[in-house]
Amino acid sequence: QVQLVESGGGLVQTGGSLRLSCAASGRTSNNFAMAWFRQQAGKERELVAAVRWSGGSTYYADSVKGRFTISRDIAKYTMYLQMNLLRPEDTAVYLCAADPYGYGPVMDYWGKGTQVTVAS
Q1: Helix, strand, coil percent content, the chain, rounded in steps of 5
Q2: What are the pLDDT digits (tens) for 69-100?
């Protein structure tokens, strides 16, 4: 089993920044992919960004390209999402996910999420 714990959410004004963290523990592996999703009320869960632990290749949704940056600390097995130029439409619960085979809409392990609210 892998445990994922997110932190760093909160309330921010439009144009502001937040950094989310996701700490992984348990049976982690350097072959994992980790990702950030967001869940907005009444909408499907959206894959926001992802990173492959080995090699560090990344993916970003078009809606966040140029504003969000995903990164990882290999020693701490922690993933980050630096969110800049935040907009009200970025308001959502942000969830961390991990999977030994890659990223996509279905991943094996999930955190409980952290709320991000962007005030207009």
Answers
A1: 0, 55, 45
A2: 999 998 899 999 999 999 999 999 999 999 99
Q: How far apart are CA 17 and CA 30, in angstroms?
A: 29
CA distance 5 to 105: 19
Q: How far apart are CA 15 and CA 74, in angstroms?
A: 30
* Number of residues that make up the chain: 120
Handedness of CA 20, 113, 100, 30 (dihedral sign): positive
Contacts of 29 (CB under 8 A, 6+ apart): 53, 100
Question: Is residue 111 a contact partner of residue 95, using CB atoms and an 8 Å limit?
Answer: yes
For residue range 28-72, list pLDDT tens digits in order: 888 899 999 999 999 999 999 999 988 889 999 999 999 999 999
Q: What residues does 84 pair with on adjacent strands?
A: none
